[in-house]
Amino acid sequence: MLKIEENLNLETLPQHVGIIMDGNGRWATNLGLIRSAGHLAGVKTLKEIIKTAVDIKLQALTVYAFSTENWKRPHTEVDFLMHLFSEYLEKEKRELNEKNVKIKFIGRIDELPKSLIKQANDAEEMMVNNTGLKFNVATNYGGQDEIIRATQKITRRVLNGEIKIDDIDANIFESALDTFGNPPVDLLIRTGGDLRVSNFLLWQSAYAEFWFTDTTFPEFTPKEFLSALEDFGKRDRRFGTVK
Ligand code: FPP
Questions:
Q1: What is the CA(80)–ligand 1 centre distance, in A?
Q2: What is the mean predicted confidence (pLDDT) over 186-208?
């Protein structure tokens, strides 16, 4: 088990952390490697972050693995990523299950390669009753797309006569999102130096605290992850009110 930093106050931890795992390609290119080598190194980092999240009993972790825009990347890189997700599931699902992790794939999963859909469904089914870390993998995910799909689901419920237009509130809206059952995102981490949200968890991070680092994802360590959590504990969260 990782030695938790002494100054980490477990009472002020966030419940739900989102991570934009950026900088894989640049990390690899700087080392004279192909971009995909960066994604491979990113898997190693992700495993360490999950271990840490389990150790500190984080409730939920959502990672941005592939956006709805990432299909525009070169075919070789897209293919590599799809194989990487597949291999990750094959190699890691047993250990994740032993750690009581509950995996869920969010996004337009039905547009992924058929074999990956099956592996994702199998892994979800395997962990469906687990009660530990909720680990959401955003794959073919876009925040705007998720909001559109939620709107479609709710509209269908209205047209079926199940609910009335005026019944639609934040709770009903949340129940139609891919992340239903997770607490709101309260800390959003982005590695790789860019200061933007890139269509990630738009609804869920309405009151999130942001934490940006120049460190690329392959170089991101559990220590830096914990320092982001520690910094979160010091933030003054007012949720629009005054104290
Ligand atoms: C963004 O970096 C990263 C991605 C599009 C892929 C993220 C995937 C992983 C970290 C692999 C592990 C994931 C799972 C679920 C097994 P980038 O390529 O845009 O980096 P750049 O900005 O330097 O080009």
A1: 11
A2: 98
